[in-house]
Amino acid sequence: MKNPYSTAILLINLGGPDSLESVEPFLFNLFSDPDIMGYNRILLKPLAKFISKRRSPVVRGYYSLIGGKSPILELTRQQAEALQKALPDSDRFKVFTAMRYWHPFIEAVVNDIIDFQPQKIIVLPLYPHYSITTTGSSINEFNRVWNRIGNPGIEVRIVREWHKNPFYIDAVCETIVKTIESHKLDIKTTQIVFSAHGLPLRFIKDGDPYATQIEKGVETISRQLGLGKNCHLSYQSRVGPMKWLGPYTEDVLKELGDRKVSSVVLVPISFVSDHLETLYEMDILYREKAKGYGISNYYRVPALNDSPLFIKALKDIVLQV
User: Fold this and answer.
1) pLDDT tens, 227-254?
2) For residue 104, cis peptide bond before it (omega within 30 degrees of 0)
3) Percentage of the chain exceeding pLDDT 70
4) Higher model confidence: residue 88 or residue 70?
5) pLDDT for position 241
6) Per the confidence metrics, is the pTM higher than 0.90?
7) How far, in Å, CA of 297 to CA of 180, rounded?
8) pLDDT digits (tens, 9 = 90+) for 180-226
9) Contact 236, 272 (CB under 8 A)
10) Which percentage of the chain shows pLDDT scores above 90?
């Protein structure tokens, strides 16, 4: 018998290796995704095997510098626990977490949800800005799993994007202001670099709205904080020889260094929890590059993780679905 008032909330994040040994299979899962690599079934898995085998030694080196694994599952579970506590009449809700490319996989968690027998499932990918490579891929995988299971008589509602949510915007603004104040900087003059995860240009040319949503989001945050001309947008994490969204973060840092800028604050705009892109790329790689470019004061704004305002945003999103 179904719980008459129950709603399951499925938070989906990227996932990450939980050990150095799992780096290669994690990469294989990532590069096996047809939403990222294309739908050529003959070439997809052999290509994924080739890329993951070639890249895994380098990527293992990156993970070894941040503790030997990704913290993204633990952080997502913390977000889920905080959201569970924040929801009114919390007995009506149960929050679940799933990862797209590593354990716990979406299929296993969906089966757990069906055992819970809710009336409704809210699928909430933890990417504020929509891209077929992130939110779209997560939704597609959920739909594949759901179709294999058949119709268990449970209503499904899916959140596709939430970059305009006012509490999310406030949460990002809060982390920026706190970082500025903690280092006794002037928000009117300090150079603020919003660094978003990059995307190959071919997706944008095919109509992916990610870049437009990122740009509008940065404009909203900049306007709310009164940043003016000291606000910059850049993209990171590019892989391979293809053309990606630009400008690249390291190029923006170099330009600021050439202008003799002494203080830069980097904002992880498209990341809601810490993982390789913040803990290695931002905290280690770009810090060293900034130092080499002559930027003496380099600071990174924390990811939102389980900040109260961010949890308020997730609560608001869920209650509006």
Assistant:
1) 989 999 999 999 888 899 999 999 999 9
2) yes
3) 98
4) 70
5) 83
6) yes
7) 12
8) 999 999 999 999 999 999 999 999 999 999 999 999 999 999 999 99
9) no
10) 90
Domains annotated for the chain, with CATH where assigned, are 20-64 (no CATH), 166-300 (3.40.50.1400)
Running DSSP on this structure, what letter comes out for residue 273? S
pLDDT level of residue 4 (50, 70, 90 thresholds): low
Q: What type of residue is 217? A: G
3-state secondary structure the chain: CCCCCCEEEEEEECCCCCCHHHHHHHHHHHHCCHHHHCCCHHHHHHHHHHHHHHHHHHHHHHHHCCCCCCCHHHHHHHHHHHHHHHCCCHHHEEEEEEECCCCCEHHHHHHHHHHHCCCEEEEEECCCCCCHHHHHHHHHHHHHHHHHHCCCCCEEEECCCCCCCHHHHHHHHHHHHHHHHHCCCCCCCCEEEEEEECCEHHHHHCCCCHHHHHHHHHHHHHHHHCCHHHEEEEEECCCCCCCECCCEHHHHHHHHHHCCCCEEEEEECCCCCCCHHHHHHHHHHHHHHHHHCCCCEEEECCCCCCCHHHHHHHHHHHHHC
Q: Quick one: tokens of 242? A: 């293809």
